[in-house]
Structure formats: C-alpha cells, structure tokens
TrEMBL record:
<feature type="domain" description="DUF1902">
    <location>
        <begin position="23"/>
        <end position="82"/>
    </location>
</feature>
<dbReference type="Pfam" id="PF08972">
    <property type="entry name" value="DUF1902"/>
</dbReference>
<dbReference type="InterPro" id="IPR035069">
    <property type="entry name" value="TTHA1013/TTHA0281-like"/>
</dbReference>
<dbReference type="InterPro" id="IPR015066">
    <property type="entry name" value="DUF1902"/>
</dbReference>
<protein>
    <submittedName>
        <fullName>DUF1902 domain-containing protein</fullName>
    </submittedName>
</protein>
Amino acid sequence: MFKYRVGFPFWREFARMGATLSVIVEVLYDEEANVFVATSPNLHGLVVEAQDVKALLSEINSSIDELLYEELHCKVNAQTTFAGFSLA
C-alpha cells in the first residue's frame, strides 16, 4: 500500500489516484483549560480539543475526513500518525 504525507508536493494528486494519506497530528495537554489539544503542521485547519484521549481521537479522525473532503471534493484514504505528545 502506497502512503503519501499531506503537505508534500503533489499530495492532492496522489490522493485522487487512491494513495493512502498520512497526516501528522501533534497533541498537547492544556492544564489550564483541562483539555487535550490536537493540531497538524501540514493539514491546515485541524484544531481539535477534548477532555479525554478517546474523545480526542474520535474528533481528530472525523475532522481529518471533513477537512480532506473539503480540500479535495472527494472521499480519500487517510491514516493518522501522532508526531508528539506533551504534558507541558
């Protein structure tokens, strides 16, 4: 299976050809707000927060699907990869 990272050159074309997309997601814990926050350095618009990790993962996956659909105007294969997790 061919994987290609969102944000790399020609990622939209590879997605339309059926390649599985890899999306880097960075997660941190905001102690002041008592929530986990997830963003992506290469998928613009991905900002998700939730009170627990299980809810966060669900929100991340649905948000990625929605953002990619809006960007490409079609359903694509996406695989989420976590790049970092900080409790700072």
